[in-house]
UniProtKB/TrEMBL annotation:
Its main location: membrane. It is a multi-pass membrane protein. InterPro entries: LeuE-type (IPR001123). It comes from Mesorhizobium amorphae CCNWGS0123. It is found in: Cell membrane. It holds the Pfam family LysE. This is LysE family translocator. It comes from the Bacteria. GO terms for molecular function: amino acid transmembrane transporter activity. Keywords: Cell membrane, Membrane, Transmembrane, Transmembrane helix. The lineage of its organism: Bacteria, Pseudomonadati, Pseudomonadota, Alphaproteobacteria, Hyphomicrobiales. The chain crosses the membrane at residues 41-63, 70-88, 108-123, 154-172. GO terms for cellular component: plasma membrane. The keyword Amino-acid biosynthesis does not apply.
Amino acid sequence: MQLTSLLIFAAALFVAAGSPGPSIAALVARVIAKGFRDVFPFLLAMWIGEGIWLSLAVFGLAVVAQTFHFAFVIVKWIGVAYLVYLAWKMWTAPVEAKEGEMPREDSPAKLFLAGMAVTLGNPKIMMFYLALLPTIIDLASVSVVGWVELTATMAVVLVAIDLAWVLAAAQARKLLKSRRAMKIANRVSAGTMAGAAAAIAARS
C-alpha cells in the first residue's frame, strides 16, 4: 500500500479517535477512579475491537454487520449496562483508602469484556470503519499485506492516543490526595462513565 494512503488513513483516524467519545470518557473515568495499573485489559479490548471493525471493512464484510445488526445492538446495550454498573460502583466507592492502597479491582476478564462491548457497540467507531474508511482508502485494492499495514498503522495511532489520555488522567489523579478530593473524583468519574453510557445509548 502506498505511504500516502497510510498517512491519510492515520490522519483521519487520529482525528476520529482523538476526539473525546464514549470510549475515551470511559477510559479516563476508569483511570481517575482506580489508577492506570489495571486499565490495560480495557485498552487491549478497545484496540482489538477497532481491529475487528477495520477487518470487517477491509474484507468487504459490512454486509455481515448489517445482517447481524441485532447482535451488534445486543453488544451495544451490554456495554451500556456495564458502564452504568461501573458508574454506580465509582459513585459509592469508599474514600478512606490508605496511602498506597486502592479499593478492590475488577478482574482483567471483566475489564476486557467491558472494553470490547464499549468498542463494538460504539456507533462512532462502526461508522468510521464501515462508512468513512471506504472514502479514504480504495478497499477493493487492499491485499492481505495492505490489511496488515493498515492494522499496524491503526495500532500505532490508537496506542499513542489512548496512552496519552491515560497519562493525562493519571497525572490528574496524583493531585487528588485528600479524602474530599477522592470523593469528588469518584463522583466526577461516575458522572463521566454514566455520560459515556448515555452517549452510546443515544446513538443509533
